[in-house]
Amino acid sequence: MTQPRILIAGTQSGVGKTTLTIGLMAAMKKKGYKVQPYKVGPDYIDPGFHTIATGRVSRNLDSWMIPEERLIEIFLRNSQGADLSIIEGVMGLFDGHRKEEGKGSSADVAKILSTPVILVIDAKKLAQSGAALAYGYQNYNSDLNLIGVILNRVGSASHYQMIKEPIEELGISVLGYIPNQQQLELPERHLGLVPTAETPLLDDYIDELAEVILKYLDLNQLYELATETNDLELGEENLFIDQKSKTDIKLAVARDEAFNFYYEDNLELLESRGVKIEYFSPVNDERLPENIDGLYIGGGFPESFLEELSNNHSMRENIKKMIELGIPTYAECGGLMYLTEKIINFDGKEYEMVKVIPGVTAMQDRLQAMGYVKANVEVDNILLSKGQDIRGHEFHHSKLSDLPKDYEAAYTLTGGKGADGRLEGYVEDDLLATYLHLHFANNPRVVDNFIQKCEEFSGGVIYDEE
């Protein structure tokens, strides 16, 4: 059976695509549909809103980091049991990796997954020119199935008709409009939207969005358009091996208001191989879970919880002792920051951290790194061997400094912001800490290598405070 699906794309960033998509997901759920949400690209924040709106965990679809067959597998696996899959695009419809024919763009994902596209147009300062815009996006790439338009920030019903009629003359369905309502905008800060854990009254906000969508959009027509697609076929390779008895290691994963940037499929790739995941909170818990064989600290916003993290002395000491005992530890972006000597906030105030990485992290006013990168492994580590390659993504405002001259870097990077060949990350024994965000589906051997290192660890050693 063909899985109904739709991709919501924007003409550019800032057209209201995320707000509209969240409301659409919630509205379709209110109508009784089981909605599976997705986000194109390397985004951790938007999927959190999707998850709350639908009650199903949102997944990332990144065609630059994930090969096509694996991307299809992730989509089909997670769409099981859903009546409708809604994919939120990234930036403008065709915006992707400039050197690889738009890989990673919303258009690229739509083509790989044979998904109809609905284009969001900001109509605030438009009239008939909206039709020219729609025509251009429809005809820029003939392989793309752009079948509908939603007009956002419309001033009035007559304004809507002024734009709608010439677009429909092009054979493009106009599914409705959203009035210009600034109170429905989501709050933002230095890395984009404020995460769900820090956004108050979120359920009420999403409910209000859903009511606006139900009032102004033709959702029955949208669902009909979502069925106009083709079957997808799985490749021969299976990412998720589903052998629960393969390993019995226990992995402690930091997950709370400070650390919550994880690709859900990374965690499920580990679980599919038998890994037992136990979550803990560096902010709220006194110590790590007992009898663990590995440690995974993902990204997030530790800079927003520096006082709480610093004041949790028992957790910091417990993590430090376990790493000193040799527990395999993978720390990514915010996790790296947490493991340094201290973090200096935007105001210059210093907060002591775990102190296993001999360096200092300081928040900067300017973005320090952003974009896709290719990483070549500099030294054997818990995920990969020297000389191997992997793709990832960087996006951070902090800067790591004061490392010793003889430290071992994890990767040599190409692409993104900065000179090609720059060093990145920190490796010491079985600790790998890096700003680089990885999707394990890019190179599944990282999952097996991490598990092997955890199995080799003596395991179950917990530091008891005297």
UniProtKB/TrEMBL annotation:
Residues 251-443 form the CobB/CobQ-like glutamine amidotransferase domain. Residues 6-191 form the CobQ/CobB/MinD/ParA nucleotide binding domain. One of its GO terms (biological process) is cobalamin biosynthetic process. Keywords: ATP-binding, Cobalamin biosynthesis, Glutamine amidotransferase, Ligase, Magnesium, Nucleotide-binding. The record marks 437 as: Increases nucleophilicity of active site Cys. Its EC number is 6.3.5.11. Its cofactor is Mg(2+). CDD domains: CobB_N, GATase1_CobB. It comes from the Bacteria. Comprises of two domains. The C-terminal domain contains the binding site for glutamine and catalyzes the hydrolysis of this substrate to glutamate and ammonia. The N-terminal domain is anticipated to bind ATP and cobyrinate and catalyzes the ultimate synthesis of the diamide product. The ammonia produced via the glutaminase domain is probably translocated to the adjacent domain via a molecular tunnel, where it reacts with an activated intermediate. The a and c carboxylates of cobyrinate are activated for nucleophilic attack via formation of a phosphorylated intermediate by ATP. CbiA catalyzes first the amidation of the c-carboxylate, and then that of the a-carboxylate. Catalyzes the ATP-dependent amidation of the two carboxylate groups at positions a and c of cobyrinate, using either L-glutamine or ammonia as the nitrogen source. Belongs to the CobB/CbiA family. HAMAP family: CobB_CbiA (MF_00027). This is Cobyrinate a,c-diamide synthase. The gene is cbiA.
